[in-house]
């Protein structure tokens, strides 16, 4: 949300305001297919996304042109996505994940990034951190990013009685953001509730893993 050009593509060419859950489902499906499905299905999903990106372009409020197929913009999306997934995995599944395993994760995910047209794509956690730091100067919290953040935090559960789960996941997601990103958004993870939220999310994740192992 903090990268003006990346956000502009969504802001100008997406119906996320009316169908936030639908956008989440489509993104989740792409991740699932490119991670777990047959190679043929994964390549087809990547081709569809690339075709969509080729049709998306526009102008930022300051008059700067943007293109969704820009390798640098695709690289930022890939970078933040993979870094966030890894952070969530370490927080709620495997806190003791070794450095070699973390680097392998970035190297394996790089194949998807390259096929989507992203460049540069980090091959290790160290490269990912350096790339994030290099891009931070471009990031902005403006009216658009504030509005999207507000919409995300105000989303209601798509399932009856799911408000408590939604609140738990939302607060956990905020807590996963780097400190500097939370500060830019005006969000905070300070206070006595957040350790409890983290513990509750970890417990819920462990229950889900147990259920799948037992099924």
TrEMBL record:
Residues 1-190 form the ER-bound oxygenase mpaB/mpaB'/Rubber oxygenase catalytic domain. InterPro entries: MPAB/Lcp_cat_dom. GO terms for molecular function: oxidoreductase activity. This is ER-bound oxygenase mpaB/mpaB'/Rubber oxygenase catalytic domain-containing protein. It comes from Tanticharoenia sakaeratensis NBRC 103193. The lineage of its organism: Bacteria, Pseudomonadati, Pseudomonadota, Alphaproteobacteria, Acetobacterales.
